[in-house]
């Protein structure tokens, strides 16, 4: 097996993570390095303490990312003497996305960002409690669906469309629905470890809290972090996506 010191771009792969979305960026950094071969099959990652120091992240954030990548089949842990966290010898099997889909995946993320930031701001101004209560129920349901991505995704779509409906703008509902369709096409090509879904759903709850407080700026910040998180996960796990 290769060791971490054999890696040709060690300093680049493990440069500090400085974003609000530390979990997703860590996942993207490692996932992209695996896809590009900078972390080759069988390579051992540095020790957790060293990784935390290099990436400037907490151990809990690192362990979340490592767990998600292990659950998706990109990494595996070996216990005992000579153990550690290793890149899987074979990447998880998945049908590759089409060339057209890969060419436009970042545009789809940009369009969604523009639409849903506006939805977050208007929902903070216009949403009524009776419109938000069903969204609480969806968040609770998603907590129980992290092992069932099909069920989770259905509730996730209903959450985002419900948020659009709370703006009382039919046009925004239509645009949000279109954006969700484009994202479904993209995320169907990536693994969905429970760690990633739990993290995303925690942001759903934070978003509702900001909307209830009628804090449009904070709602947009949470929404931006939420959507950028999805973009980082796609960059890290979408087969053939460029970093």
Task: State the main characteristics.
single chain; 243 residues; mainly alpha; Arc Repressor Mutant, subunit A; Four Helix Bundle (Hemerythrin (Met), subunit A); two-stranded antiparallel ribbon; 2 strands; 65% helix; disordered N terminus
Model description:
The chain has 243 residues and is mainly alpha-helical. The chain has two domains: 4-87, Orthogonal Bundle (Arc Repressor Mutant, subunit A); 99-237, GntR ligand-binding domain-like (Four Helix Bundle (Hemerythrin (Met), subunit A), Up-down Bundle). The protein is 65% helix and 3% strand. The protein contains ten helices and two strands; from the N terminus they run ααααββαααααα. It has helices at residues 10-13, 22-36, 48-55, 59-71, 99-126, 129-143, 149-165, 170-187, 194-212, 216-237; strands spanning 75-78, 84-87. Strands 1-2 form a two-stranded antiparallel sheet. A hairpin with a 5-residue loop joins β1 and β2. α2 packs parallel to α10, α5 runs antiparallel to α8 and α7 packs antiparallel against α8 (170-187). The longest helix is centred in the middle third of the chain and has 28 residues, at 99-126. It is globular, with a radius of gyration of 19 Å.
């Amino acid at each position: 097996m290769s060791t971490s010191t054999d890696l040709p771009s060690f300093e680049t792969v493990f440069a500090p993570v400085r974003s609000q979305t530390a979990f997703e960026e860590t996942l993207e950094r490692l996932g992209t390095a695996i896809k590009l071969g900078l972390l080759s099959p069988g390579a051992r990652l540095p020790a957790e303490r060293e990784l935390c120091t290099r990436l400037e992240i907490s151990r809990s954030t690192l362990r979340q990312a490592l767990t998600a990548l292990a659950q998706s089949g990109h990494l595996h842990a070996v216990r005992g003497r000579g153990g550690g966290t290793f890149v899987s010898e074979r990447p998880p099997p998945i049908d590759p996305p089409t060339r057209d889909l890969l060419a436009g995946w970042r545009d789809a993320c940009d369009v969604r960002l523009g639409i849903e930031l506006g939805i977050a701001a208007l929902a903070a101004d216009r949403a009524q409690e009776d419109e938000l209560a069903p969204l609480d129920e969806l968040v609770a349901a998603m907590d129980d669906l992290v092992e069932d991505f099909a069920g989770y995704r259905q509730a996730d779509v209903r959450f985002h469309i419900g948020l659009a409906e709370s703006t009382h703008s039919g046009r925004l509902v239509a645009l949000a629905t279109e954006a969700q369709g484009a994202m479904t096409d993209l995320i169907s090509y990536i693994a969905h470890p429970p760690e990633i879904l739990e993290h995303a759903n925690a942001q759903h709850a934070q978003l509702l809290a900001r909307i209830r407080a009628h804090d449009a700026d904070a709602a947009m910040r949470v929404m931006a972090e939420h959507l950028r998180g999805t973009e980082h996960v796609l960059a890290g796990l979408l087969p053939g996506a460029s970093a």
